[in-house]
Amino acid sequence: MMIAESIRFALSGVMANKMRSILTTLGILIGIASVIILLAVGAGTSNAIKAQIGKLGTNVLTVSRQTTAGGRSAGGGQAVTGTRSRSTNLTLQDMAALTDPVMAPDVASTAPVVTAQNVTATFQDATHAVATFVGTTPSYFSISNDALSAGSYFSDGDATNGTEVAVIGNTVAQDLVGNQVNSAVGQTIALNGQNFVVSGVLASKGSSGLNDPDDIVVIPYSAAQDKFTGYSPSLSSITVQAKSADVMNQAQNEIQMILDARHNVTSANRDYQVRNQAQILTTATTTTATLTILLGAVAGISLLVGGIGVMNIMLVTVTERTREIGIRKAIGASRGSIVSQFLIESLIISLIGGLLGIAGGYIGSAFPVLGTQPEVQWWTVWLSFLVSAAIGLVFGIYPANKAAKLRPIDALRYE
Amino acid sequence: MNNAVIHLDSVSKIYGKEEAEVRALDSVSISIERGDFVAIIGASGSGKSTMMNIIGCLDGATEGTYHLDGIDTGTLDEYQLAQIRNRKIGFVFQNFNLIPRTRAVDNVSMPLAYAGVHRKERRERALEVLDSVGLAARADHKPSQLSGGQQQRVAIARALVTNPVLLLADEPTGALDTKSSHEILDLFESLHANGRTIVMITHESDVAARANRVVRFQDGHIIEDHRLRDVNAHPLATAVPL
């Protein structure tokens, strides 16, 4: 009963000075909206990275050469030159050993990776700087979840014979032949001046905004060794697919056992490293989480400023309406009813600001930021609602108390 | 005291401390009977406003006891005092003190809201009382749309709506022209004729002359307590020149 009355009195108070109420509401609105949007951007980025890594395969391990040669830590003051020439290379034989069903029961398949930097693709007048250039075997496609948009992969025979065929990503095809990407199949393109026939175009994986997985050219590993890295039996890395995401650690241990024996090293002086996608995922998630917290903190500060704005306005309102408070007390308003009237007034302002801020947050999150679609998190909506209510209470309690503590005779005498 | 609405027993009100001590009221004792129409007069600084604040439970006495309708107000806490003001006293102020931007009917029904009366009933009673002061047609007007006399009548309606034992008026005609003043005083007289207890503070002797009893204050003391008419006498019936 009395609460309904307090709400009615508070509403008329809010309406009494519309412009001021709107501006105060705006402070909360901006604060809440920015919290929601920035956290949505953080979540969107994080999810995009996860999705991208997921597309690369969550059960994939990468064995790569350690650039700092092994034996260094063990050797102490010993010259480094000798160790560099040691068998720090990953070879096809290493790769073959990893598929041993007895020694490595958790490994499903493997693919060699030979990479080259600064490869430029040209087709007629069009050129494209390739971001990712990979020489490998056909098993690479299934390991990294690459689907074809048109044409075909190259065969195992092509891989060993070094046939000049290439499978190109969507972005590369688009740059070279235009929007009809599938028309690239069968065309002869030049990679650093050497002719390759496009055998297939990969289906788009979509960009995450950070790097483009479609900016890729895949050719047989032996062709890459022949024509790009200079012939050597070494591989840049070996991509290993575990039987499932659950046996990643077992697979990693098996790989390390096999390679330690083959390279004659121990865990102390390994000349290679095994990374699994789960670790990369963790690293990426941690990074984006830090970023999200920073963004959220900045937004939180603007929300705090909005809250102080509410308190400021409520103090002005109380001073301005001192006489009204005196009248109300004279005709029988208790402290409690004065407190609730002003507290509800600040609650109304901050809750309206909060609700509009949530709406603003949703609207603002509809637009991509830096190529990433922000994803509004449910918990931020609830949190925002609660925070705006809390702001109304916390920043309203002092002015409301100040109003209630006024002595009626002083308040009535106030001009 | 048994029939007294107001009973003050050696009430003092002291402002300041020690050297700067000011006795706004100095050991004042008075009883006001039910149904009486009393005017409290005095120059400014005589203590009449302090008297009004204490009678109205807006301020507490420093010394002495004050019984309102048989209740010792000195023992009440702030919440209970708010309830006393709400149920027992109707205030009428010099400058009307209506809540701005609020319709007359809502101003009048506000004490009932604090008394916890249901909304619908509140409105009915407010309209009734507005009708009794002749302002039924102005119920939906805001204070700024009413003349001074009309505003004061809304304020009187607000004071009467809880049916209090005491109507306490502080310079009710102070901000009004002569014609409106007469209307308000006529209204007070008819309320008194209906058995209302009225205490009116004023500094104008012709206004005080409309009361049945005139109490004069000076320097915190009652220096004159003059009964013009019997407690329940109606001045229109027994016109006595001052």
Task: Describe the fold and architecture.
Chain A: Residues 21-256 form the MacB-like periplasmic core domain. Chain A: Residues 297-407 form the ABC3 transporter permease C-terminal domain. Chain A: Keywords: Cell membrane, Membrane, Transmembrane, Transmembrane helix. The complex is a heterodimer of chains A (415) and B (242). Chain A is α+β, with helices and mostly antiparallel strands and 415 residues long. Chain A is built from 15 helices and 14 strands. In chain A, the strands form 2 sheets. In chain A, strands 1, 3, 4, 5, 6, 7, 8, 9, 10, 11, 13 and 14 form a 12-stranded mixed β-sheet that branches. In chain A, strands 2-12 form a two-stranded antiparallel sheet. In chain A, helix 11 (277-320) crosses helix 13. The longest helix of chain A is centred in the C-terminal third of the chain and has 44 residues, at 277-320. Chain A starts with a helix and ends with a helix. Chain B has helices spanning 48-55, 78-88, 104-115, 119-132, 148-160, 178-193, 205-208; strands at residues 4-15, 22-33, 37-42, 63-68, 71-72, 89-92, 166-170, 198-202, 213-218, 221-227. Chain B starts with a strand and ends in a 15-residue tail after the last strand. The chains are: A alpha+beta (415), B alpha/beta (242). At the A-B interface, helix 1, helix 12, helix 13 and helix 15 of A face helix 2 and helix 3 of B.
Write the layout of secondary structure elements.
The complex is a heterodimer of chains A (415) and B (242).
Chain A: H1 2-16, H2 18-56, E1 60-65, H3 72-75, H4 81-84, E2 90-91, H5 92-98, E3 107-115, E4 119-123, E5 126-130, E6 132-136, H6 139-143, E7 148-151, H7 156-161, E8 165-168, H8 170-177, E9 188-191, E10 194-202, E11 216-220, H9 221-227, E12 234-235, E13 237-242, H10 248-263, E14 272-276, H11 277-320, H12 322-330, H13 335-364, H14 378-405, H15 408-413
Parallel strand pairs in A: 6-11, 8-10
Antiparallel strand pairs in A: 1-13, 1-14, 2-12, 3-6, 3-13, 4-5, 4-9, 7-10, 8-11, 9-10
Helix pairs in contact in A: 1-13, 2-11, 2-13, 2-14, 11-13, 11-14, 13-14
Chain B: E1 4-15, E2 22-33, E3 37-42, H1 48-55, E4 63-68, E5 71-72, H2 78-88, E6 89-92, H3 104-115, H4 119-132, H5 148-160, E7 166-170, H6 178-193, E8 198-202, H7 205-208, E9 213-218, E10 221-227
Parallel strand pairs in B: 3-8, 3-9, 6-7, 7-8
Antiparallel strand pairs in B: 1-2, 1-4, 4-5, 9-10
Helix pairs in contact in B: 3-4, 3-5, 4-5, 5-6
